[in-house]
Amino acid sequence: MNTPAPFRNRVEAGRLLGAEVVERNFPEPRIVLGLTRGGVPVARGVAAALGAPLDVVVVRKLGVPWQPELAMGAIAGGVRTLDEHLIQELGVTEIELERIAEREAAEALRREMLFRQGRPAPDIEGHTVILVDDGLATGSSMVAAIRYVDNARPARVVVAVPVGSAQACRQLKGLVSDVICLATPEPFYAVGAWYEDFNQVSDAEVQRLLEENRVHEYPTELAMS
Q: Between vectors from CA 179 to CA 218 and to CA 112, what angle results, nearest 5°?
């Protein structure tokens, strides 16, 4: 499927993506995990379409010290993914890398505590886990999220995004059960270029969306680790 872009906003993208995910008829039990923060409004639409629980994966980009928007890796939970080629090419030192990783891990923990308000992470063992973001550029954040949830022994992992670079969508297919990219425009540019409204998502909005969806009950005895 190749849906025309741009999308009006993340809400519209979530509604369209949710309709496509429903069509795939993935096995139950299912849970939708949005990558914070931009992926959560999209994930809310997918969870609503499925009637499934919504939770989050807190992923933090590891930006190059002198060019923070350029990702040299990402971190999710205790899982770190690195672009070793880029790190070597740019001459990022181990000390610089560890300093950034330590800072981003602390911020990820802060957000975990804020969003969950003392609740444990969901037990996703044996579930169909649908990982949702607002788009895929390099895919580094999604790779970190995939490796993180893989530790919790889900039955299958599905990546679902409204828009992504064709290269990133192809690369992820070898890591998960299925990849859904509604639109793979070429040339790609950046994720925000394919939304009319791509305003930053606040912590408060993430909290609100999680609370709205928290009408579902699911086991939390075994937290993701």
A: 45
> Hey, is 58 helix, strand or coil?
coil
- Strand, helix or coil at 78? coil
Residue 221 tokens read as 């005895």
Q: Is the per-residue pLDDT at 73 higher than 60? A: yes
Give the 3-state secondary structure of residue 104. Answer: helix
**CA 206-165-88 angle, 5° bins:** 90
Residue 144 in tokens? 């970190």
Q: Sheet containing 178-183: give its strands across.
A: 54-57, 30-35, 128-132, 156-163, 178-183
CA neighbor of 53 nearest in space, from 67, 43, 39: 43
Tokens of 91: 């001459």
Domain assignments of the chain as residue spans, ordered by start: 10-213
Q: Are 47 and 215 in contact (CB under 8 A)?
A: no
Query: Residue 7 carries which DSSP code?
Result: B
> Any alpha helices (H) in 117-182, and if so which ranges?
140-150, 166-172
Q: Output the CATH code of domain 10-213.
A: 3.40.50.2020
Identify the pLDDT of residue 93. Answer: 95
Instruction: State the pLDDT at residue 71.
Output: 84
Instruction: Report which DSSP code applies to 188.
Output: -
